[in-house]
Amino acid sequence: MYRSKDFLMMEVVDIKGKKIGFIKDILIDFNKGVVTGFSISSYSLFHKSVSISKKDIISFNYKMIIKRSRKEEKLKFFPLKGIDVIDKFGNDIGIMEDIVFDNITFKINGVVVSKGLIRNFINGKKIFLIKELILGEKNILYYGEDKKMNFKTMPHDVVGKNR
């Protein structure tokens, strides 16, 4: 599984080894629940930004190697980061902090929701499945049921009690 932060600032080169730029944002299709590509900030002064479709990616590790880039505008993740997540009763659940997606299909599996630094440290962050979320203009609606099983990210053993 990947998160958006795994790709930020990753250098992008083409097949010939020419440096294109670095990844500045992730392109998503929220309704289909997939990462469609990446937005690249170009090193060239004449090219402001370009997009890369996931089908044009040859490989990536610490650098991304691509076949070609395009000039397309799609929905970007970072303008959505920090948007409020509410439940079907209008209660504030938190803010969208990150997405979690599959490392092969790039299908978005979940959205990481934060309630603030102190609450994150005490209770952890919540992860909601993408199929239970609807993207609106001002917020994201969580319409899933409150289940007995909740996904959370918890802080590691900071004090070192179990050593």
TrEMBL record:
Pfam name, any one: PRC
InterPro entries, per the entry: PRC-brl_dom, PRC_barrel-like_sf
PRC-barrel domain mapped to chain residues: 2-61
Domain of life, source organism: Bacteria
Name used for this protein in its record: PRC-barrel domain-containing protein
Organism: Clostridium ganghwense
